[in-house]
Design goal:
With about 120 residues, the protein is mainly beta. The chain has helices at about 55-60, 115-120, and strands spanning about 1-5, 15-20, 25-30, 40-45, 70-75, 85-95, 100-105.
C-alpha cells in the first residue's frame, strides 16, 4: 500500500510517498518511492501503548475521521549487535489506512506525565 506523506518523517523530509510492506503482525517496512530509503517499523500495539491525543491540525492533514482507520508505528533501528538497536517511542509514525496519508508526530514527554524518564534515560530529548 502506498501512503502520501503529509507531515514529514524525520530524516526523510523530501520524501513524498512511502510504500508499506507488512512483515508480520508486529513488524513492517516502509520504502520511500523517490529516495528508496527504507525504515523498519514496529506496531504500536507490540509494546505497552502510550495514551495521547492527536492535535486537530494533524488529524485534518491526515484526514482522520475515526481511530479505527489508523495504524501507529514506532521507527525501529536494528543494528547487527541487538543491544545497540533503538526505537523512538516519542515520535510515532501514523498512517491513515482510509485516506492513505501519513505523518510523524512528536510527543511531549512532559505532557504525557513521563518527565521523570529524563532522569532515568538522559539520552532522551
Amino acid at each position: 500500500m502506498k501512503f502520501e506523506v503529509v507531515i514529514p518523517i524525520d530524516g526523510c523530509e523530501n520524501e513524498i510517498e512511502f510504500e508499506l510492506s507488512k512483515l508480520d503482525d508486529f513488524f513492517s517496512v516502509i520504502k520511500g518511492m523517490q529516495t528508496g530509503i527504507t525504515l523498519k517499523l514496529m506496531s504500536f500495539g507490540a509494546l505497552k501503548s502510550l495514551a495521547f491525543e492527536l492535535p486537530d491540525d494533524f488529524t485534518t492533514k491526515l484526514e482522520i475521521e475515526s481511530l479505527e482507520d489508523i495504524s501507529i508505528f514506532y521507527i525501529f533501528v536494528l543494528q547487527a549487535q541487538v543491544s545497540d538497536s533503538s526505537m523512538d517511542i516519542f515520535s510515532p509514525v501514523i498512517m491513515n489506512n482510509k485516506s492513505l496519508k501519513m505523518g510523524q508526530i512528536h510527543l511531549n514527554i512532559n505532557e504525557l506525565g513521563l518527565e521523570s524518564l529524563n532522569d532515568i534515560l538522559p539520552g532522551l530529548k
